[in-house]
Amino acid sequence: MIGGLLFSFWRFMQIITLIPTLGMLAYFVDRYQKSNLLTPNDILVLFIVSVLGAAWAILTVLRRKSTRDSAMFVSFIDLCFVGAFIAGVYELRNIANADCSNFSADSRFSVTINNDGLSGDAPSLRLNTNKECAMRKASFAFGIMNCIFFAITAFLLLFMHRTRKDDREVATKETYRRRSHDS
Fold it and tell me: What pTM value is reported for the model?
């Protein structure tokens, strides 16, 4: 029972992290498609894996009973998704060292003392963010998270299969017949 609850928890975590990844990468695919350009491999690989992973995660949550019954197969597919997410993250690896945002401030800072007390000007802070860089970096991070999440569910399913197999062992039942004596 606890294995089923843990499995459901991690599946929901996968779905929660795959939906934003799908949205961000779909933005790039749509933008490149509208510009009549080929989508770069780094975006396309992770997008395809995320679409398939989200569909698989939703399907296995909805069909939890059959997922338990075929735990070895589902575990194998989860391990395949671990490899696919590793490939997607590897393709997007160049974004890891990118600086997508920075703060800028005015260098003016003044304090004036007058009859009314203190008055001053503080520097104004501005956050400059490159939206596309930040979305790629977030997709990269979610891809790493999903590698870990799919590995966790694969091992949970292996554990569930092992314990389920132990539960299914057929106990031998001995029956005794009582012979009646006809007199």
Answer: 0.74
